[in-house]
């Protein structure tokens, strides 16, 4: 039984009728033949074992942001043998495969490849035991506990399915293995490296990304309009004059400046951002000094911003500069002693195209492998997928979290009073193997719907 949670609309009866007629006509014009859907499902099912082996291999061999050399190699190798034009090393470790199949729309599908610094405790036979050394030379655990192994596997699976079904679609398929989503910097790195200029990757008419979620396998979250917030990172380094803890009058204390900033930065959201917009400022790290009796020369704050649009982001960034510089000036600093403020990583707020999402909804209504649909969920989370199309004109974009948790596992968790069995980045986060097949079919269904002959 398919459950659909629909958005409430407040429009006139006549407008409702016109909207209904428009969507009905569109659906009639773009409905994929059932025979093609059936064939697609058979193609995916036949390849299921092969694709699951790839997923398990990627899961067992995770790599951190901009170090996804092995993972990128798997993506490149699989797409090359399917006849894709493959380019590697874009933005560091990014991979793009292009399959041209006559006239038609350009459809881009993106999967992110990086893992997280968390030790896995799922107990799975293919669980990660990998450890790597960080910049300080310390050994740290690495694991796919956000589902990027699945997201990458769907890129490969879609390549296999579409390559075998070329007689049923026309246009250009662009598959992207993106690095460094966890640091919200990989998509922008690919853009800065010349994704559409130096590498001449075709600009998409349609853009789609899927991401695993702790909802039950078979769930599609198909919100149109603003879906997530945008995000960026800010670093503030306060410079001071060091000294002995007994003689602060001979020093200019950067720790005090950092403390003043921690308090004053709270006004960026409460007094500067429009209350009708989304604005979040989190100070995730405070670093200064090493011992009790020494006033250090620097204090470092690491900030995480979330925002509903680019205008809000720019207001927040200006306010952060104004506050930090004002604190430094009030402590007698000027010139080259002013705070060093840097921005890194960027993911624009995701605004899903309404028409594209309606097409996706109508397609999912026709298949049995989608069992639940949620149409009105917005999230405070952020992603950098849409940085790949940020600033491009006339691109219909869609980003969807889809359920990849074993329904039995979820039911057990809910019986214990939990909303979810686990959340992303949880040491126990795992992707239902049936969820791999579900995501593979969903991606292929949408691609064929858009690119059908």
UniProtKB/TrEMBL annotation:
Domain Peptidase M20 dimerisation: 230-326
This protein's UniProt keywords: Hydrolase, Manganese, Metal-binding, Signal
A UniProt-annotated Pfam family: M20_dimer
Details of cofactor binding: The Mn(2+) ion enhances activity.
Record keyword Hydrolase present: yes
Cofactors (names): Mn(2+)
Signal sequence range: 1-27
Database matches in InterPro entries: Amidohydrolase, Bact_exopeptidase_dim_dom, Peptidase_M20, Peptidase_M20_dimer
Binding site for Mn(2+): 146, 148, 182, 211, 425
Designated name of the protein: Amidohydrolase
């Amino acid at each position: 039984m398919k459950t659909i949670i629909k958005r409430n609309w407040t429009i006139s009866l006549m407008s409702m009728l016109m909207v209904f007629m428009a969507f009905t006509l569109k659906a009639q014009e773009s409905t994929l033949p059932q025979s093609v859907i059936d064939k697609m499902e058979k193609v995916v099912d036949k390849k299921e074992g092969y694709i699951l082996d790839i997923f398990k291999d990627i899961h067992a061999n995770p790599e951190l942001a901009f170090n996804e050399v092995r993972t990128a190699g798997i993506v490149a190798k699989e797409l090359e043998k399917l006849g894709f034009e493959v380019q590697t090393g874009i933005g560091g470790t990014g991979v793009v495969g292009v399959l041209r199949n006559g006239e038609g729309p350009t459809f881009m599908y993106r999967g992110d490849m990086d893992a997280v610094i968390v030790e896995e405790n799922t107990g799975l036979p293919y669980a990660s035991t990998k450890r790597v050394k960080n910049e300080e030379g310390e050994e740290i655990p690495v694991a796919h506990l956000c589902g990027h192994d699945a997201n990458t596997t769907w890129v490969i699976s879609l390549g296999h399915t579409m390559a075998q079904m070329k007689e049923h679609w026309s246009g250009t398929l662009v598959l992207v293995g993106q690095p460094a989503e966890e640091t919200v910097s990989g998509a922008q790195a690919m853009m800065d490296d010349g994704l559409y200029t130096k590498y001449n990757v075709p600009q998409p008419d349609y853009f789609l990304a899927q991401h695993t979620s702790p909802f039950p396998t078979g769930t599609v979250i198909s919100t149109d309009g603003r879906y997530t917030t945008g995000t960026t990172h800010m670093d503030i380094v306060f410079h001071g004059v060091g000294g002995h803890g007994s003689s602060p009058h001979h020093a200019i204390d950067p720790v005090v400046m950092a403390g003043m900033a921690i308090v004053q930065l709270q006004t960026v959201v409460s007094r500067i951002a429009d209350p009708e917009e989304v604005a979040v400022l989190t100070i995730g790290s405070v670093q200064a000094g090493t011992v009790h009796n020494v006033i250090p020369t620097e204090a470092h704050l690491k900030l995480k911003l979330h925002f509903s649009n680019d205008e809000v982001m720019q207001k927040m960034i200006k306010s952060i500069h104004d506050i930090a510089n004002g604190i430094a000036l009030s402590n007698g600093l000027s010139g080259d002693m002013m705070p060093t403020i840097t921005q890194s990583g960027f993911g624009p707020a995701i605004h899903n195209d309404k028409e594209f999402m309606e097409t996706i909804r109508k397609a999912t209504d026709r298949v049995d492998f989608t069992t639940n649909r949620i149409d009105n969920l917005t999230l405070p989370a952020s992603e950098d997928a849409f940085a790949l199309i940020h600033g491009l004109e006339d691109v219909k974009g869609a980003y969807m979290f889809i359920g990849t948790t074993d329904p039995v596992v979820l039911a057990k968790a809910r019986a214990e009073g939990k909303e979810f069995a686990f959340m992303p980045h949880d040491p126990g986060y795992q992707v239902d193997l049936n969820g791999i097949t579900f995501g593979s079919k969903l991606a292929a269904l949408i691609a064929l719907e858009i690119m059908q002959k």
